Amino acid sequence: MKPVELRTARLVLDQPTMDDVDLVTGYCQDPLFEKYMVTPWPYQRSDAEQYLGTVIPIHWEDDSEYSWALRLEGELIGLIGFRTKVRDIGYWLGAPHRGRGYMPEAVSAVVDWVFARDSADILWECVPGNISSASVARKAGFTFHGLGPALYATRGGEETTAWRGSLATTDSREPKAGWPTE
After folding, report:
1. Which pTM does this prediction carry?
2. Would you tell me the crossing angle of helices 102-117 and 131-139 to the nearest 10 degrees?
3. How far apart are CA 139 and CA 142, in angstroms?
4. In the beta sheet, which residues pair with residue 119?
5. Cβ(121)–Cβ(167) under 8 Å?
6. What is the DSSP letter of 96?
7. What would the pLDDT profile of 17-72 be if each residue is shown by its tens digit?
8. What is the side-by-side strand order in the sheet with 12-14?
9. In terms of Cα–Cα distance, which of 83, 76, 101 is closest to 14?
């Protein structure tokens, strides 16, 4: 599939490019990435180059994962992706851009696009304790299911547990009760 551009009231979601290497490298130095993400740690410029230059284009081409850069006034502020095999969504936002509602806005745009293609549920998960990720999923209308086996192994390859949720095409997009708050 060719990359698809999505737009929201404030954001443009398009394919990340090699022009984004410096910002991705910088954002991924955030200590929260070590704690809550499975990205390589410590994150190096070469990790960003491989991800942006090789991994993302291959995944769009083989329909295994669709990744978008979140752009505010042309500047990359984060990334969001949808993996087709297990139908899950993942995202991160650079530290200077958090707390302004950009990620729930982007998640809603991606969810709308995915549901326009088919109606199977979309899954979400994060490392237990990642309140920011849980807050985004709650604001986007996902239902929290609690702790369960993680879809993906840790950075070190170990099986683990995760906070899990889902969103069906028939679900209200209103925030639902039952989400962790700390």
Report:
1. 0.95
2. 50
3. 8
4. none
5. yes
6. G
7. 999 999 999 999 999 988 999 898 999 999 999 999 999 999 999 999 999 999 99
8. 6-7, 12-14, 65-72, 75-83, 88-93, 122-126, 161-167, 143-149
9. 76
